[in-house]
Amino acid sequence: MLDQDPQRAGVFGNLLFNAATAALSTGNVARADDLLAEAQAAATRARTDHATEAAIFGPRVAALQRIDHTARAGEAELALQQAKTAPAPTGDVPAFWEAGHRLRLAAASAQARQDRDALAYLKAARDLAPDWVRYQPLGTATRRRLVDRAPRRLGDAFSDLAIHYGVLPRESQSHTATP
User: Fold this and answer.
1) Distance from CA of residue 179 to its chain's centroid?
2) What pLDDT digit, counting tens, does each position of 137-163 carry?
3) Calpha distance 93→74 (Å, rounded)
4) Residues in contact with 179: Cβ distance below 8 Å, sequence separation at least 6, in sequence order
């Protein structure tokens, strides 16, 4: 953890992320939090975000992991609060990581019934990594949830996102009503 070599710190940090995910999946939220705190400390020492074949790691990446774990633990509103204080990237954070973060925030927003925010996050994810997000189940599930509870179609932007995430077929676009 005290290693300041970015690649070695990144590998160590990614191992901690994996262990935290395993702890969370077995219901051990406290253990997951401890592991993420250790990863955050290593990321702080690493100082910059970087992406290599060996690891994607750094202060922003560690913050995104914490937000993801908080949301997965059922704390949607807390995850949305944490996102407001996440540090900006200090180096390379791949677009698909940023897009995945937006998908998680979209799901948390939908869970908190903040549907306009959820749509904004889905759009941001699509804009960051359009091909990648199209195949992500979280984006499709979140978009489907929003479509299912929409009182009416909300125009072309609403249907464009539904089409992009595969919730509505392409031919549906010509049948949407505009507000």
Assistant:
1) 30
2) 999 999 889 888 765 556 677 778 878
3) 26
4) 154, 155
β partners of residue 7 = none
Which residues are CB-contacts of 19 (< 8 A; sequence separation ≥ 6)? 35
* Banded pLDDT at 174 (limits 50, 70, 90): very low
Place of tokens 């509103």: 77
Tokens at 6, concatenated: 């970015």
pTM of the model: 0.84
Q: List Cβ<8 Å contacts ≥24 apart for 30-37.
A: 32/69, 32/73, 33/69, 36/62, 36/65, 36/66, 36/69
**Residue at 76: amino acid letter:** A
| Measured distance CA(59)–CA(168) in Å, rounded | 37
Over 90: is that where the pLDDT of 88 sits?
yes
For residue 95, give the 3-state DSSP assignment. Answer: helix
